[in-house]
Write a structure and sequence with these properties.
- InterPro entries: Apaf_helical, LRR_dom_sf, LRR_R13L1-DRL21, NB-ARC, P-loop_NTPase, WH-like_DNA-bd_sf, WHD_DRP.
- This is NB-ARC domain-containing protein.
- This protein has about 1300 residues and is an alpha/beta fold.
- It is about 30% helix and about 15% strand.
Length: about 1300
């Protein structure tokens, strides 16, 4: 079992040793003396020793070894290999240094620098360390006989060890002793889908399968219907990630086989198999299906064997067909025919349990099409740990995500195992009772009393909190404790230890979790283990983590001579390989996506797996809960500064290659930082971000770390970079965001291997000669200056820049020829380009002709996907011939802002253009035929079209009627005050979102335009007009309707025709009426509309709007604005009490309102309450009081000038996560008690000085600081500057910050 033992990493042999040999030969070059001395050793190492070593390591990687001799031998080999690599780094650094001095001309630097080293004459001292390191490394192989004996010894025991870690096949049998808590909703939902699917699919195509997804049970969430969506119970304290699969992919699956396949996805040990077993054995399922088959899918399987197992299971005996003398293809045909015959005209229920990653294509292509021969109503349920498998083989609009249990349910499950017959559960009250009375015999045998039992229960509660809701861990450890009911000391030892430290429990738990880990392969395993040095709930940035991996060369393929290489006929970079590996970890559920792009979290259980598989190797996280520091050779360390002492860390700092600091570093001196950084001579990665350096002294300790590849000093308080720092020639990543520099070294452009420089535009503009950093992969913004070293020509050789580039101050370019020197066309990795002329220059001083010529010379490469042009004095855009032939076939997005052009180019010919936006083009008066171009299809790929602030625009010619125009257009935004009439041909049935805003336009053809868009889901009209008629019968897909400034509104066909409406916002109107084709009046009763969930209400007009809203019991979001009431009447209070499903409520600009309705306390589902611009409110209801349970998660109070305090019951809001107090000057203190434990974000902005003083942490701790010290993220802004220390929310502990960078974590 990986965990307590050691796995010898194959990455070390396959990558590091080969890399060392290649680099050593590069160093040799023409140095014949050195070549003669060690070439034979390198040859022997490569030809004889390395193959044996690789074979051995790959075998030991498949299963762990406890053999101390073998482990020691490998440790020595790895240590010596690291020493060689460091010696090679030193030689490379000398070559860079000498080249920069001008002794050898170098035009380009890259990862592989062997060709430069060949021409350098090294001194004896230079080579001494390298030769000694090679000799020491080679001496390890003199122990080969001993190594072989160890290998034989290991192999003799391998089968025994492997038998413990192989996956055990599952079956449909449900152990009657297995306790099941907290899965009722998931089981109910799966059964509901299966049984409804029988009714819908019996005579219908699978394309209509989403019709079976009705209203989900409370606590389940569905995201969308057009794409496969994840369904899972909402987790407390966590945000649900949303991973959608391709709709196109699903449609292919549906066409291939008419068989519904529902995936259950989750981490190992969460209970996927158990849920499937319960469903499989459900009596209704048994009765509804003709056949039921349970298939366990092994890691390596043959589809023919799977087919045969299904046939044998149904027939209860082996097939009589003799296949012994037949070929594989013939055997497959025979078995396939038998399977078809077995299931033909039979309705079957099939479970595929534990489908491994990588098998989905075989099932999709070879098995499921065959299973499609069953009777309509058949169903397949699959379980897997991989999200990729789920979305690839699942052909339903839903994926069941099975997460760990909620804490209250897991507590019950764990105690049911730990106390056995002494445990009882009351289903109605949801409470448990543990008592000796339940089984006096067991109590007597274990010498238990009620007091002792109560003591053990308190320990069990604490142990349960450490197991993170994993049912498997609860069962295994609970059973172990049950056998020790008479030993309270043993229970205490389990509480104080980690579960993976106990070999008897870790074997079974890790066996489930580690299935996916063993499938990763050595290179991905190394990347995964690196993540063990980060704290719990750390928010990983995908790109930053990949750059950290690159800093350590974790088995990344090295390109030749610093150039890109080809993989699958496509040029990619090392970052692309790293990104692909990260994506594989995501697909295997080792990371979970967040709502923010490229931000991910690692589940607590997965993090503990990472710790378990790496704790005997190089990785270590120093936590405040640790009683001691491991004495293993640690090379990669994350340090929680809140709980670590310098003396605890110092003994293991001598071999460090990674140091990342988390938490509060305030109590540490600069000397402490120097001690930790300076004790190792091999650092490659150093993260000191947010530590609050009061002096710049650590810079000199950092600068002596010549092997550094990655340095993060962001928000650290440094204000200068010394010259000595610029001698870090290997540095690839430097992050100094949030630092305001008084002085930058003039040698910054000597960091020639720098690939990423994260800094503000102001900092970047201070670097003279930045063009020498030719390896930079990103340059978000480049300010063009007027002096040498800052001209646009600096970009000439920076052809590795990728992603986004923003060129500002283009008005400083003096000629077309100078603009051409930046050679944008050669920057093939650049995907997004933004060109900006300053708008500060007086328009009468602008040279429009020159600016247009500059743009002409800045034509980007054909790989460009996004282009933004801001400012510019020309009357037209560059004459780049906007067509496929001109090389713009990849352009997907164009934005033109604040430009003086008068006509629009022929953008309609661009084949890939998806987004087109024009803003503040004040000179454009007409959009004519030239805009559409001459292609047969006009705007063939355009999805979004936006025009805004084009005040001179009056005429818009229609698209040619004889051509296909805007075939896939989805969204149209028009914010133009002067346009009087809209064309009709661009408004097609594909449009789903339409926004129209104008102060003067009459738009007589609005009704006609709306009729051309029958699939509209979002409609927003804000125009000053007298009358507007909306044909509701033609807008049955409409979900969101916003109307503003329309005096008289008529709903033709009645608002009840808007059957899918879920959000309604009507403001500033005089009358709403409904018109029906038949001469019958609405009876005035509210029409039930269960889909309307959001309502924005001008309270004065509620009598006209509420009849459109349907039954209030379905409303989930309500905004009340501009209410003239002072206090609510009894009837109005009753109205609020009807909002039983309300989750979000906001009162805005209710200037006379003095108090909120008291019936808000009855809204048990309310999660978010916002009070904004209500200056007369002086007090708030007592939310969270013992008499009223509350589900509030977010509270916001803003601009409530007379609000004197927060509710005294605020600390009782146990589910509260976020609290915002802004511009409430009368609040001078927080409630008496500590704020809720689960609160993760607190924002206090522009409030009273007294409140600020009470909440401060330093220099003098405020009276209320103890109430908020447990909150991970605290932001305090005030009118007068406070001397709060900036702290990173990523680094744990209460985090003060005044910028927008905000990432949440909780460091335990």
């Amino acid at each position: 079992m990986v965990g307590p033992e050691l796995t010898v990493g194959g990455w070390f042999a396959t990558s590091m040793i080969r890399n060392i040999i290649d680099m050593a030969r590069s160093v040799l070059g023409s140095n014949h003396a050195l070549q003669t001395e060690i070439e034979k050793r390198l040859t022997d190492l490569e030809k004889y020793s390395l193959p044996l070593l690789i074979a051995t390591i790959e075998e030991t990687s498949k299963s762990p070894t406890k053999n101390r001799g073998l482990i020691k031998w490998m440790d020595n080999l790895r240590n010596d290999a690291y020493n060689i690599r460091d010696a090679l780094d030193d030689l490379e650094a000398k070559r860079f240094r000498e080249s920069l001095k001008g002794k050898n001309k170098v035009t380009k630097f890259g990862y592989s620098t062997g060709k430069y080293l060949k021409t350098l004459i090294f001194s004896d001292d230079d080579l001494k360390a390298f030769i000694l390191a090679v000799d020491k490394f080679s001496r390890n192989f003199k122990q080969l006989p001993e190594f072989i004996n160890l290998l034989r010894e290991y192999r003799s025991n391998a089968n025994t060890e492997n038998s413990k870690i192989n996956r055990n096949p599952t079956s449909s049998f449900l152990d009657p002793n297995k306790k099941i808590f907290g899965r009722d909703l998931e089981i109910y939902f799966v059964l509901d889908i299966i049984l409804n699917c029988q009714l819908v699919c019996s005579d219908q195509e699978m394309s209509n399968i989403d019709s079976i997804i009705g209203e989900q049970p409370f606590g389940m969430t569905t995201y969308g219907k057009e794409e496969s969506s994840e369904v899972g119970r909402e987790r407390k304290g966590e945000e649900k990630s949303n991973m959608k699969s391709s709709g196109e992919q699903n449609s292919v699956s549906i066409r291939n086989w008419k068989l519904p396949v529902l995936p259950i996805c989750g981490t190992g040990g969460v209970g996927k198999t158990t849920v499937a077993q319960i469903v499989y054995n459900n009596q209704i399922v048994v009765e509804r299906f003709d056949l039921r088959v349970w298939v366990y899918v092994p890691e390596k399987f043959n589809v023919v064997i799977i087919m045969k197992n299904i046939v044998d299971s149904v027939r209860a005996s082996c097939s009589s067909t003799d296949t012994r003398t037949k070929s594989d293809s013939v055997i497959r045909q025979i078995i396939e025919s038998e399977l078809i015959e077995t299931i033909r005209n039979k309705r079957f229920f099939l479970v595929f349990d534990d489908i491994p990653y990588g098998s989905e294509s075989i099932l999709n292509n070879d098995l499921f099409p065959v299973l499609g021969n069953g009777a309509p109503g058949s169903f397949v349920l699959v379980t897997t740990q991989s999200k990729r498998v789920s979305k690839t083989i699942g052909n339903m609009p839903i994926i069941i995500l099975l997460d760990v249990l909620e804490p209250e349910w897991f507590d019950l499950l764990f105690k049911s195992y730990a106390f056995g017959e002494l445990f009882s559960f009351n289903l109605e009250s949801g409470s448990c009772l543990i008592s000796c009375k339940h089984n006096a015999t067991i109590a007597q045998v274990n010498n238990l009393t009620e007091d002792k039992l109560s003591y053990l229960e308190s320990i069990a509660t604490k142990i349960a909190e450490k197991l993170h809701g994993l049912p498997l861990a609860g069962r295994v450890i609970g059973n172990m404790l049950y056998n020790k009911l008479d030993n309270g000391q043993y229970w205490e030892e389990i509480l104080k230890s980690n579960w993976w430290d106990n070999e008897s429990t870790s074997q079974e738990i890790l066996a489930s979790l580690e299935i996916g880990y063993r499938d990763l392969g050595p290179e991905l395993q190394q990347c995964f283990k690196f993540c063990s040095i980060f704290p719990k709930r750390y928010v990983f940035d995908k790109h930053i983590l990949v750059q950290m991996w690159l800093a350590h060369d974790f088995d990344f393929v090295q390109p030749n001579e610093g150039e890109s290489f080809k993989l699958n006929s496509k040029e990619i970079k090392l970052e692309d390989i790293g990104g692909e590996r990260f994506d594989k970890l995501v697909e295997r559920s080792f990371f979970q996506a967040t709502v923010n792009d490229d931000k991910y979290v690692m589940h607590d259980v997965i993090r503990e797996l990472a710790i378990a598989v790496s704790r005997k190797e190089d990785f270590y996280y120093v936590n405040r809960l640790d009683n001691k520091i491991s004495n293993v050779i640690t090379r990669h360390m994350g340090i929680n500064c809140d709980g670590s002492n310098e003396e605890d860390i110092s003994p293991i700092c001598t071999n460090l290659r990674t140091v990342i600091l988390f938490g509060n570093w305030i109590k540490y001196s600069d000397k402490s930082i120097r001690n930790i950084v300076g004790k190792s001579n091999s650092l490659r990665l150093l993260d000191l971000s947010y530590i609050g350096i009061k002096k710049n002294a650590p810079f000199y300790a950092i600068s002596r770390q010549s092997h550094l590849r990655f340095v993060d000093l962001s928000f650290s308080g440094i204000d200068f970079i010394p010259d000595i720092f610029c001698a870090l020639y290997h540095l690839q990543v430097l992050d100094v965001r949030g630092c305001e520099f008084k002085e930058l070294s003039t040698h910054m452009n000597e960091l020639i291997n720098l690939r990423y420089l994260y800094a503000s535009a102001e900092t970047l503009s201070q670097i003279s000669g930045i063009g020498k950093l030719t390896n930079l992969q990103e340059l978000k913004e480049f300010r063009i200056g007027e002096i040498k070293g800052h001209r646009i020509s600096e970009l000439r050789d920076m052809n590795e820049i990728s992603g986004h580039l923003h060129l500002t101050d283009l008005q400083n370019v003096t000629s077309k020829e100078e603009a051409a020197t930046c050679q944008l066309a050669k920057k093939r990795y650049l995907k997004s380009l933004e060109l900006t002329f300053s708008n500060k220059m007086d328009k009468f001083l602008r040279n429009g002709k020159l600016e247009q010529e500059v743009l002409e010379a800045l034509k980007p490469s054909p790989s460009m996907e996004m282009l933004t042009i801001r400012g510019g004095g020309g009357d037209s855009l560059p004459g780049w011939k906007w067509s496929t032939q001109s090389g713009f076939s990849n352009l997907k997005c164009i934005k033109v802002c604040n430009f003086s052009l008068t006509t629009l180019p022929a953008f309609g010919e661009l084949p890939s253009l998806e987004i087109l936006s024009f803003d503040a083009l004040l000179q454009v008066e007409m959009v004519g035929d030239e805009f559409y171009g001459h292609s047969d299809v006009v705007f063939p790929s355009l999805k979004e079209l936006q025009f805004s602030r084009m005040n001179s625009w009056r005429t818009w010619s229609d698209a040619p009627a004889e051509k296909l125009s805007f075939p896939v257009l989805k969204k149209i935004d028009l914010h133009c005050n002067g346009l009087m009439e809209m064309p009709t041909n661009i408004f097609t049935s594909s449009v789903v979102e339409f926004t129209l805003s104008s102060l003067y336009g009459k738009f007589n053809n609005i009704e006609t335009v709306l009729q051309r868009m029958p699939r509209l889901t979002h409609l927003s009209i804000a125009i000053v007009c007298n009358d507007l008629s909306i044909n509701c019968t033609g807008l049955r897909f409409l979900e969101v309707l916003c109307l503003e400034n329309v005096r008289h509104i008529c709903f033709i066909g009645g608002s009840k025709s808007l059957v899918n409406l879920r959000k309604l916002d009507i403001a500033r109107f005089e009358e709403i009426r409904e018109s029906f084709e038949e001469e019958e009046e609405n009876d005035g009763t509210y029409q039930e509309n269960r889909f309307l969930t959001s309502l924005n209400l001008d309270y004065d007009y509620r009598s006209q709007i509420l009849p459109l809203a349907g039954r209030l019991g379905y409303l989930r979001s309500l905004l009340i604005r501009n209410s003239p009431v002072t206090e609510y009447t009894e009837d109005e209070e009753s109205w609020f009490s009807q909002l039983t499903s309300l989750e979000t409520l906001e009162f805005s600009k209710c200037e006379k309102l003095k108090c909120l309705p008291s019936t808000l306390l009855l809204l048990t589902k309310l999660k978010k309450l916002s009070i904004v611009d209500c200056p007369e409110i002086s007090s708030l209801p007592e939310f969270g009081s013992p008499e009223n349970s509350s589900s509030l998660e977010t509270l916001e109070f803003s601009s409530c000038r007379k609000l004197r305090g927060l509710p005294s019951t605020l600390p009782l809001l146990t589910k509260l996560k976020k609290l915002t107090i802004k511009s409430c000057r009368m609040i001078t203190s927080l409630p008496e008690s500590r704020l809720p434990r689960n609160l993760t974000e607190l924002y206090i902005t522009f409030c009273s000085d007294e409140l600020m003083r009470r909440c401060q942490r330093e220099p003098d701790e405020g009276d209320d600081w103890w109430k908020i010290s447990h909150i991970p993220v605290v932001q305090i802004k005030c009118f007068k500057p406070f001397s709060f220390e900036k702290k990173s929310p990523q680094k744990g502990g209460p985090a003060y910050f005044t910028d927008a960078k905000k990432v949440l974590t909780e460091d335990h």
